Amino acid sequence: xVVRNILMPFQFLRQKIDYSVVPWCTYVDPExxxxxxxxxxxxxxxxxxxxxxxxxxxxxxxxxxxxxxxxVKVLVAKG
Length: 79
Description:
alpha+beta
């Protein structure tokens, strides 16, 4: 996208980055990562969603790394 915006001579052909879909991670113990909307943002936008919460001890990576505390939370659009 950056290269395209540099090479486009016309402003209307350029694109903006949608930062709401850019993943980020903070490498602490336990790790914190996110991509997309969180619960507060989904509620503020009045979006219908399902919340899936899974204890980390049941996640494959956590089993391999012997992690026992923490969770994974996923918001999924209904429909």
